[in-house]
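Board notes (copied after class):
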Amino acid sequence: MKKILPLLIGLISLNISAQKYFTKTGSTEFKASVEAFEPVEAVNKSTTVILNSENGQIAGLLFVKAFHFEIALMQEHFNENYMDSDKYPKATFRGQLVGFDLSELTTQEKELSLKGTLTVKGKDKIIDTTAKLKKEGDKIIFTSVFGVSPQDFDIKIPSIVRDKIAKSINLTLNYELVKKK
């Protein structure tokens, strides 16, 4: 907890005076499946995300062990053999929604450029993708899909299962952000 508190304070303090939108129940899922083999996919429904509505800065934090697999043994291998979750318990993202303007959000999706740094297993990867945003009442709905490679984060895939795991892992982000009071 002592290590997590400074990171959360950093996420919250993107800009003290700015209006923030956030979630603690965001959904992050990944798929690394290869056709003809067992699905390699998991969902994490406890991603914390904060969006600064004045400048489009966005930050996210998730605990790696919170990814849920349908097959328990796959989840165990993911945490112990691939992600080393005890040593690297969290993944983070810090970035910018380029051209973000809260006043321009409507019920129609708007696509913006999303640029930032994804940190997994202590390794940084520059992400340059798109995100879709829209307003639903007082909420901002944020979605994005992009791919990363296990090699980007020094994740070693044993040769015995290498053909059963996709070379590009698809990440899907679904966040319902509410105004921080």
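Comment from the instructor: The beta strands are 20-33, 41-52, 57-63, 90-98, 110-120, 123-136, 139-148, 165-179. The mean pLDDT is 90.
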